[in-house]
Structure formats: C-alpha cells, structure tokens
C-alpha cells in the first residue's frame, strides 16, 4: 500500500522539500484588514509583519475547515495513495488537529492517521519529513505515523520575540507571563513544552536572549547528529547571525534549513521573532532531547 503524508502550512517546510517528498500542505487562514485569506497563498508573511507594525492593525488566524482537509485527503487518494498520515501543529495551539480528525472520520480512520506533533513550525516539519521518508521506503500507515511521533518527541522548538503582546492577544501565552515581560522589560527565551508555549529562561536584554537561545540549542544538540531549522519574521539579519554561530558551534550538524515564518504563526510572535528547531537524529541519548508527549 502507498502511504501519502500531509501537513498544514504552519510546518513551514521549504517548498522544494515538500515537493521532493510529495507532501501535500493544507493552509491555515489569516484575517487582516477585514479580509481572510489562505496563508502563503493570499496573505504573506510580509503582509502580516507590515500590519503588526502599524498601530491599530489587528491580525488573527483560524484553522483550516474539515472540508479543506477532506478535499486534500480525497485528492491524495485519487492520486493513487491507499493510506494517509496527516501531521499537524500542536492541538494546544490551534484547532487544526481537531479539524483534521473530523475529516479523517469521514474518510475512515482505518485509512487516515492524524498525528498531533505537539510542536510548531519545523518542530512539525521534521516529523513530516521523517514520515515521508518512511513512506517512501514502503512503511505501512502505522509505521509512518510512528516515525512522525517519535521524531516530534525528540524535537525541541525554542524562540525569542521582541514583545509578548502578540502571543498574549492570541491566547498562546498566559497573561501573567506577558504582563511580567512588559512591566519588567524581560526578554524571555521561550519554548514549546507539552504542546504549549512557555518561558524557558528570563533575561534582561535582546542580545542576552539571543545568546542564551544559542546556548540552549547547543546544549540540546549535544555531540550527536542533528538537524536544525532557523525561523524568523522580518528579521533576516538576526537569522543569519544565528545560522553562522550555530554552524560553528554545533559539531555534528547534518542539515540546516532557514525560512521566514509564515502569516499564521507570524501573527502570534510578531516582527523580530527568531527561533530554532532542534531535531536530534534517532539514537541520540534521551537526556539530550526534550520530553514531549505526542498524539
């Protein structure tokens, strides 16, 4: 049986990689200036960064509909797939996983496995790529889904934002943490833990936050083989500095992807955000990776 792998647009897979691995991508919706559009198709990261930098402009996001997923699932089956594995953004951060589950129930849960990555951005993307690689090797649906879950479980997503206000407005971080950051001018290093965005370390300056971000990445990567992804929103210079430092300090770096965050996650982190996703390869010691349960 041929297994096809699908994901949503917040995985931020480089388009060439998605095409190479045959991964179908279902976009989230972004609302700004009174109009709703699909992430990456109708509304770009640049649109969101510009709106968030303009006083009074509000940006919101919404999940794909079950109908969007149903159409993608049927298209994959019509193209020759027998089984599907659908890997998505943390259910703690979005209703995307729920929408995919509703669509899967209409197709048949013996045909579609829906995986909650408990992560975001390339924290989801690396799980998708591992699933697609397993599928290309002829693995069955259960094995492909397991490859996604295991990769997601050993992957960590860390990031720094200029302000916590966008995360607070979108309900992605607690009000107390956001108020603390604003009142005390704290620049926390954040990470995704158990599918939620939580502070990892609180520091006083942006420069210190970036330095600590790099150190956490280096500590997580350890000496074993690892893949990294660097994300940013309207902060290419910061991203390039991170890339240069990580190439120098991570000894067994196998691959490094760089991409700008899309509109859906960009709306919640704001311009200036930078992040790194660390995905140790299978066999890395357990104490080098985060403990993130998956669905």
UniProtKB/TrEMBL annotation:
NCBIfam families: DegV. It holds the Pfam family DegV. It comes from Blastococcus xanthinilyticus. This is DegV family protein with EDD domain. PROSITE patterns: DEGV. Gene3D superfamilies: 3.30.1180.10, 3.40.50.10170. Coiled coil: none annotated. The keyword Nucleotide-binding does not apply. Keywords: Lipid-binding. GO terms for molecular function: lipid binding.
């Amino acid at each position: 049986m041929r297994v096809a792998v699908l994901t949503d647009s917040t995985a931020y897979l480089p388009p060439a990689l998605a095409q190479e691995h045959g991964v179908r991508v279902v976009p989230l919706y972004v609302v700004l200036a009174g109009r709703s559009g699909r992430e990456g198709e109708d509304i770009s990261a640049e649109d969101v960064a510009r709106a968030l930098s303009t006083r009074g402009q509000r940006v919101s996001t919404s999940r794909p509909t079950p109908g969007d997923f149903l159409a993608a699932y049927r298209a994959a089956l019509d193209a020759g797939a027998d089984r599907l594995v659908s890997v998505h953004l943390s259910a703690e951060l979005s209703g995307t996983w729920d929408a995919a589950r509703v669509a899967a129930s209409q197709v048949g849960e013996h045909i579609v496995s829906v995986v909650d990555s408990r992560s975001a951005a390339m924290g989801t993307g690396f799980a998708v790529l591992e699933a697609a690689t397993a599928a290309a090797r002829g693995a069955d649906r259960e094995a492909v889904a397991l490859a996604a879950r295991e990769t997601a479980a050993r992957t960590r997503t860390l990031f720094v934002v200029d302000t916590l206000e966008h995360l607070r407005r979108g309900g992605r971080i607690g009000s107390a943490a956001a108020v603390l950051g604003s009142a005390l001018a704290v620049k926390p290093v954040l990470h995704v833990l158990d599918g939620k965005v939580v502070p990892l370390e609180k520091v006083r300056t942006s420069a210190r936050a970036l330095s600590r971000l790099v150190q956490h990445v280096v500590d997580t990567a350890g000496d074993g083989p690892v893949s990294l992804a660097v994300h940013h929103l309207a902060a290419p210079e910061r991203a390039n500095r991170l890339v240069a430092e990580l190439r120098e300090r991570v000894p067994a770096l196998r691959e490094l992807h760089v991409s700008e965050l899309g509109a859906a996650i960009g709306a919640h982190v704001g311009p200036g955000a930078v992040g790194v996703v660390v995905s140790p390869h299978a066999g890395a010691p357990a104490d080098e990776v985060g403990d993130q349960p998956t669905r």
